[in-house]
Each structure stands twice: as C-alpha cells, then as structure tokens.
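Records of this kind hold a single protein each, on a pair of labelled lines. With that in mind, the following record should read easily:
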Amino acid sequence: MLLFGGILLAIAAGCGGPGEGSGAAGSTSSGTTENLSGELTLVGSTTIQPVAEVLAEAYESLHPDVMINVQGGGSSVGVTSAGQGTADIGMASRDIKASEFEEFPDIVVHTIARDGIAIIASPDVTVSDLSLDQIRGIFSGTIVSWRQVGGPDIPIVVISREEGSGTRGAFEEMVMGEDAVISAAAILQPSNGAVLTTVAGTPSSIAYLSFGYINDSVKTISIGGVAPTPENAASGTYPVVRPLNLVTKGEPDELARSFIDFIYSADGQAIVVQEGYLSVN
C-alpha cells in the first residue's frame, strides 16, 4: 500500500447525517492508564478494514488484555451488523443511507477519517486525464473505446466493485449521479484489493479505488486536471472524497468508546495518515 506522505492533513470532519457521534479528535489520551479488558468485533468496509487492523494492533499494544477482531464484508454488512447488534462496531466507507437510519434508528455514526476515490488504469493506458462526464460515460458503457477520450482505438475494460460496497456506493453518488448506472458489462470484484490486482493484470482496464490501496502496479488518472492526492483532497480541489465511518448501536460502551477515542487521538490519526487516508483533525 502506498503511503501518501508522513504529515497530518487537515480536513473538515462530520458525516452530515442524523445519529452522528459526538466524539472529538483528540478528546482523550491514548488511554495507557486505563485498566481495560475484553473483546471487540468490527465488521464491514474493506476500505476501512486495513487501517482498522493497524489501529487495533496499536491499541492492543497499549491494552494487552483487549482483543480486537476486524472483519470485512462490505459497508452495508457493517451497518446492518452494528444495527442488529451482531458486531460491536460496523464500518462503512460512505454516508449512511436514510433507509438505514429508518431501519436502525439507534445507530450512532463516528467519522474517523476521509478517503479519496481515485480513477486507476492498467499501466499500458496512455490517457492521463478525464472529465467527470467522460468517467461517467466509460462506467455507464456509452464510451467503449479509449479513442473516444484521446487514446488509441482499443476497447475499454471496465472493472467495478459489487453491489453493497461502500466504495461503489460513494462512486455512484458522487460520479454516476441519478441518471447513469454502472454498465452490466463491468467486471465486478469483491474488494479494493481484488480491484487493484485485476486492473494491474488486465490491459486497457479502468476502475475506481480507495486512495489507501494505490500503489505502483497501476496508474492514476486525474479528474479535470486534478491529480488524486491527499493534498488535493484535503484542499477541496479533488472532487471525489467520502467519509470513513464507524457505526455503533447507540452510544458505544466503555471499551468501544475507548478504542474510538484512541482513533481520534493524535497517535490514531497519525496511523490514519500513514495508511494513506485523510485525518479528521
């Protein structure tokens, strides 16, 4: 996973929906004096999963009697698991839907980071910049050849996430809009890691991917002349940025609250940035 710099990047926090958590970044210390024990289970977004695993390891080093189990499954699974109480914390790499708040009115949302969604392509692709309209056309299937966007006359291979993915949901909301849908011809992949591997090994392919997964095996494509970098996302010039949320059923209990507060702390947010995401500090 490519690390996008070693400094904290400031960006406005908040999920902008009902049920948002009230915890503030840096609201507690790392908690080294707390005598905590027990287990936490986190389930959901494969975008959040890798950084959650690193955060969990760091927290467990401070609290040896705590065990944190982090599982994937997708954002929709994360929200449902938290809402039904089958997981202590759900993970959702998108805004929580109104229908989810209606189904689970007790859920509380804690925005722990922000993440850009990059447009990536296989290394052989010569096109380096696309407009949002062109991206929408490619993923909806109305643009089918690289020649239509300034490249050679080669068919475009579209790769996408599956239904229920938070990355897909955010991409559909921010890029596709209400009038376009992802083509049925798109090759669907079950995780960000699978998208990365597939694009790297599939000539003439294109996909969308979390910033935190980008590495040198693929090329990134600018949107309207703006490169997909944390700096551009933090400044507001990059157009496709979404929240990374933890979800609890009601206010978190003592152990979950302590872990969430650790994530909001300076040490926790440093890990967020080191893993390629944007701090909420």
Observations:
- The chain is about 30% helix and 25% strand.
- The radius of gyration is 19 Å.
